[in-house]
Amino acid sequence: MKKPPLPPMETMNNSNSPPISISNSDSNSNSNSDTTSFPEDDRPVRVYADGIYDLFHFGHARSLEQAKKSFPNTYLLVGCCNDDITHKFKGKTVMTEAERYESLRHCKWVDEVIPDAPWVLNQEFLDKHKIDYVAHDSLPYADASGAGKDVYEFVKTVGKFKETKRTDGISTSDIIMRIVKDYNEYVMRNLDRGYTRKDLGVSYVKEKRLRVNMRLKKLQEKVKEQQEKVEQKIQTVAKTAGMYPNEWVENADRWVAGFLEMFEEGCHKMGTAIRERIQERLMGQQSTGSKYLLPNGEDDIDDENEEYYDEDDDDENEEYYDEEEYYDSSEEEEKKEKDGKK
Predict the structure, then answer these.
(1) DSSP 5
(2) In this structure, which of 160, 164, 177, 314 has its CB flanked by the most CB atoms within 10 Å?
(3) What are the counts of helices (DSSP H) followed by strands (DSSP E) for the chain?
């Protein structure tokens, strides 16, 4: 049998039909019990979910989705506490009450938003909005107002509680913690976007310090990026060398041989030039004596104490003799010996 179409929203809100009858044989029955009964006239089950919904995120949306899908035909009402009661019992919110109400209105699972929702539910509120079930996670929610140990203690007692599951890893407190943890980065982010330090409540000194720190951080990131590029190039070269080891060995031998050849040739030229210069000086000394004149007639005084070393001279005590001086000294010694015999 095909179900009749749903009545218009206004008709559902103003319906005078009684709430769904629930068996309360066990006052501690939960949402998973089999005592749940459905309306005989196939009207939507009116499920209520409430919260603060600050910084509305997908964790909120998933909980509302579970509440919406808790019955085949569900009309979901979502209550949201105002700023006064929230700041009193929970603490300061990031979004205003108007912003939180509007966020809920744009969630596709929500059929109706109830502003100024009470902190603790009672029978009067359930009757006023014709609420059949209240959906929330099963963890005890401490009643900061002092009315009881658990905010949902009453609805659990009367058997109108429908359990939903929390989404791990996401909550308003977690989001705020992330912002506080990276506070300096978010301050710099907004300063770069045109906000003034007064808008952000930051002193002049702190602003300058943050800007310096951010510049240093960017510089460190650039250095790290360059290091990674160099490492990638080294790995590429090493990989290429591993792929063609014979070619690299041949090239390395050729490069080393070329360098040694150039080095040896340069050393040979240098040694030849030094030898030629020494021979020129020795020949000049032989022709003019131990002291010779320059072309302009002046004494070459600066060269008297000049010493010359052969690059192949490994013996520090090695002496050099001129042949003519050696023979002259030999003749003088022979004459002295003859005179002595006479």
Answers:
(1) P
(2) 160
(3) 12, 5
Rounded Cα gap, residues 112 and 164, in angstroms? 19
Q: What percent of the chain has pLDDT over 90?
A: 39
What is the residue type of 310? Answer: D
Whole-model pTM above 0.90? Answer: no
Output the CA–CA distances (angstroms, integers) from residue 209 to 178, 197, 260, in the order listed.
22, 12, 56
The answer to whether 184 touches 211, Cβ cutoff 8 Å, is no
Helix, coil or strand: residue 114 = strand
**What is the structure's pLDDT at 307?**
46
CB 120 within 8 A of CB 145: yes
Angle between helices 172-181 and 183-192 (to 10 degrees): 80
Q: What are phi and psi of 161, to 5 degrees?
A: -100, 130
Report residue 117 as tokens.
């929702």
- Give CA–CA dist 194/269, Å, rounded: 70
- Is 36 in contact with 22 (CB distance < 8 Å)? yes
C-alpha separations of 56 from 62, 85, 100, 137, 164 in Å:
11, 18, 7, 17, 17
* Stretch among 64-78, 152-166, 179-193, 314-328 having the lowest mean pLDDT: 314-328
Rounded CA-CA distance 299/67 in Å is: 116
3-state secondary structure 244-301: CHHHHHHHHHHHHHHHHHHHHHHHHHHHHHHHHHHHHHHHHHHHHCCCCECCCCCECH
Query: How far apart (Å, rounded) are the C-alpha atoms in residues 150 and 156?
Result: 10
Could you tell me the CA-to-CA distances from 80 to 18, 105, 214, 298 in Å, in that order? 25, 11, 40, 113
The residue type of 169 is: G
Q: Which residues of 173-210 are buried (b: 16+ CB within 10 A; e: fewer)?
A: eeeeeeeeeeeeeebbeebeeeeebeeeebeeeebeeb
What is the C-alpha to C-alpha distance for residues 144 and 304, in angstroms, rounded to an integer? 108
Find the mean pLDDT for residues 318-323.
Answer: 48
